[in-house]
Amino acid sequence: MRHVTRYRVYPSQKVAGRLFTGFARCSFVRNWCLENKVYRDSCLPKLKEEYPELKEVHSKVLQNVVQQIAHNLKALRAMKATGRKVGKLRKKGVHSMIYEQTGFKLTGNRL
Q1: Among 35, 68, 80, 93, which one is most buried in terms of CB atoms within 10 A?
Q2: Given this model, what pLDDT does residue 103 score?
Q3: Chain-centre distance of CA 8, in angstroms?
Q4: Which among 91, 11, 101 is positioned nearest to 61, based on CA atoms?
């Protein structure tokens, strides 16, 4: 079982701007993948060449966005196989980012 810890952040204006830019970049990647029906993270290097602003977002975060689409599609297929009526994934914004890499530590109540 995977242990997930969630933290609420209270960033400064400068950091908040960078975070919201990251959310916009993740939303772009998610919607691009749905539009072009590409569900593998092997598309990211070419996408970063085409759109250099994506290099500002950590690669593991973008990989998680693409992998989340694949997991969602797998779940929809499983529900459809059991006879449930399911829709399709739609374009939308991303409201959270998953950072799986190390390099973070808690000091008191600060990350």
Answers
A1: 68
A2: 67
A3: 17
A4: 101
